[in-house]
Amino acid sequence: MPLVITSCTNRKRRSIAGHMRMSSLPYAATNELAGEWVGRLQMEEERFPAGQIYGGRSFQDALTAADLLGARTLVISAGLGVVDVRDAVPPYGCTVMLGVSDSIATRVTDSFSARKWWDALIRVSPFSHSLGQVIISSDGLVYAALSEAYIMMIAGDLEALPLEAHARLRLFTRAPLDRVAPGLRPFIMPYDDRLDGPDSTMRGTRSDFAGRALRHFVEQVATPDDMRSATEHAAAVRHALSRWRLPQRVERVRHNDSAILALIRTHWAHNGGSTARLLRFFRDELNIACEQGRFATLARKVRSEQP
Predict the structure, then answer these.
(1) Angle in degrees, 0-180, between the axes of helices 257-267 and 292-305, rounded to the nearest 10
(2) Would you give the end-to-end CA distance of the chain in angstroms?
């Protein structure tokens, strides 16, 4: 059976209790924080299948691809570890993204890194499967649609796979190639900005790029019982995109701080209070220019106003 792997999302379809948010935990070193966090997860009685908790287009595109493939689906979760979409898990608020209220980085007292948190979490989380064991035990291609933060977070797990399992990896990400572990680069399918160009059937935002690329691959490139090599699949992707044009470069509109603040307040809830998602929404959907550091400062001001 093939395997689909996707990132968790900040957008949740189930309500999250206040004590199930990372922002409610006391400050602690990474290992202690992971232990405290897992303790809360275990105590929470309200649970749902993981596939019913996460929202957002990228996650839904990954589920669609998995259905087309007849694949098992795993979620790489910064709050739970490696979970199957059928696993019963509690709704939670926890992310490795920086600049948001439930960021792990805001609670650790030692130096923060996503990989360090990941290692601490999967050691103690009763919800987490072993990613390596699941991949090794599968017998088909492994399709992983991952954001830049998540492909970097689990790079060590993927690089540690035996050669046979490595050869079955097909990776979909918008992460720049030079930021991906060298051992994983041969397995990245060469999707680029043409996925958002005028000829694309899969246009969207940058935040859902990985899921869209995976879905296009499954619908337009892959074939039943497809066991072509990663090199052959990469060539097939290049061919599929060869007649697609790049999107036109857009000159974004600039606003003063007062206007930006008003827009952040308007779109705050829709984007889950995530600074990164808001910034992408401003750039990709509203066509508004704002330097990242300036935007983060303004978003912090709006966050401080929240009840």
Answers:
(1) 60
(2) 47
